[in-house]
Amino acid sequence: MRLFLSLVLIWMLSGTALADTMQPLGRFHVINTAGFIERDGNRAPLASDLETGELTLYRNVVGNLVLTISETDIELFEVENGLAGLTWNSGNSSLLEAADILDLSPHTLPEQVQAWGADVTWPGQGEVQLVLLPLGENAYSSFLISHPGSSTVVRQMELRKVSGPPNRPAPKATVPAPVLN
After folding, report:
1. Dihedral sign for Cα atoms in the order 28, 77, 62, 69
2. For the region Disordered, what residue ranges are annotated (predicted)?
3. Average pLDDT of the chain?
4. I want to staple 95 with a disulfide (CB 3.0 to 4.6 A). Which of 5, 13, 73, 90 is the partner?
5. What is the C-alpha separation between 21 and 25, in angstroms, rounded?
6. Helix or strand or coil: residue 35?
7. Residue 169 contacts residue 104 (beta carbons within 8 Å)
8. Mean of the pLDDT values across residues 10-14?
9. Within 13 A of 24's CA, how many CA atoms are on the CB side?
């Protein structure tokens, strides 16, 4: 699987985000929801991992997202053309496809769905590509892609807001309530 990002800048910040330059978006629970390893053209699912983590998400003054994980800040840059600027092959896996993400968004065109990403050094994984896509106001889908040796490892993560309004998507159409007798 190959993921092409329209990213030129690679930047990893360290330290705590400065409150006066960052707009807080909230604290989020993170869980690995799916993944696979591909080696020699063969794809196998990753074992289930139901442990959750937590991160804080901010938007900086230029519109990039900053994830704070374990006191480390990672800046994700806006992907040109949003969802339309990303390509990936989720075939023979349970990963979300671009059409799934579009369906979960309030938008009708892939270029209207914002996306952020960066190449970063990830603990235990080395150099990885990290991509974040919104799933409404209170959730994000994320992909962590690494290339150890001749393999490709893709982890799909879901970020859900810790507190606030329910994390259910708004209905796209008004459906009348059933009549009860």
Report:
1. positive
2. 162-181
3. 81
4. 90
5. 13
6. strand
7. yes
8. 31
9. 11
Measuring CA to CA, which residue among 1, 162, 142 is closest to residue 76?
142
Closest by CA to 160, choosing from 24, 23, 25, is 25
Residue 167 CA to residue 138 CA, distance in Å, equals: 6
Q: Where are the beta strands (DSSP E) in 19-168?
A: 22-39, 42-45, 52-60, 65-69, 72-78, 116-122, 126-134, 139-146, 151-161
The upper half-sphere exposure of residue 52, i.e. CA atoms within 13 Å in the direction of its Cβ, equals: 11
Distances (CA, A) of 71 to 1, 16, 20, 55, 99: 31, 6, 17, 9, 34
Residue that is written with structure tokens 């804080």 in the block: 56
Backbone CA torsion sign across 88, 100, 59, 31: negative
- For 155, the token pair is 């982890």
**pTM, 2 dp:** 0.74
Q: What residue type is 169 in one-letter code?
A: P
* 93 vs 162: CA distance, rounded Å: 28
